[in-house]
Fold this protein.
Amino acid sequence: MQPTAPALSAPESGLPVLAELAEQLAAAAGRSAPEPAGGGPALHAAARGYFARRGLWTDAGQLIAAPGAQPLLLALLASLGGDVLLTRPCAAWYTQVARLAGGASYHVPVPAECGGVPDPFALLETVRRIRGEGGRPRALVLSVADDPTGTLVPPETLHEVCEAATAEELLVISDETWRDTRYDAHGTVVVGPAEMCPEHTVVLTDLAGSLTPTAWPAALARFPDTGPGRALRARTLSTCTALRALLAPPVAAAAAHALDEPAPVRARTAAAARLFGALATAAYGRLTLAGALCRPPQAGPFLYADLGELRTALAARGITDSVELEDHLSARLGCHTPGGHRFADSPDALRVRFSPLALLTGDAARQRALDAAEPLESPDVAQALARFGAVLGELAGG
């Protein structure tokens, strides 16, 4: 039986607070009136502009804002009812939220080329098996820019998945939190399900970490502009209200400003993508040099590695599963390094998610790395990567 792992530390430490957002937060700190459930007019206007710049024209009646993606997904799944399909691996919090929502959750393996979406044939087989056993599959949660693997979903693969989900009458919930942190502007084009099957897609984006600091929880959901979509939004909003999942007014003000994407926010997003890309690509190189298997990361702050090829060397150190691997790497690297069991993988598989940004200790070091035109030339980055490589070398050496 798979062990129940303690929850991941939340929120994970991210980038330093952008001064302009701190000013917006401070300016709204004196507001005593609560933010309306689902977000107020200013936040909705900013969110509409944010989605429009990404090719998704949006009405205020399609939006809900909440204090974090976790309560927002919980309210959505609870309002939808039925069972939910997730990928294997998937973001650690998906499974926990699906369990809280009350339905059963089923994990479908990802294809070889990327994480974030299920293999379309395995998806069809799983849905039909669930129905054959009396279940009610209602939703598929996927991620076009994936946590934990750091990969982007190729448009042709996403199209096949969307076709399969639509054929089986599944609502697609698309987590697009890290969509804007693509490393290579000329690489894989980022396309979301809402551009392929708009009537069957809810877009979910967690602003905390991508646009706002990780400690300021804020998230958006964009519902389909259809009768069923608006009815689902109404039920989800009612659930958020019952849970008092309401944004704090100062956070709402800062989030609205970030969603408008003025020049400093755009510059921070570009700098973050540059830093994530430099760190993750360098970490990927060191992992492959040590003998680990890993999909090349393309977006976001994470990458996911399989150390199964090092099983003999790891066993010599008393490491035989992902729980022990997590404990060892967290202690040696000085930052939480969660094993694959947290992402719905078997603990017997020696898989682990790395967050190279966490190797940089403290806001000052992260700010210097952000400010560097070439992050790999930053002494803080060089020292962090050297320590990372040394720890991997120890593992590979037995």
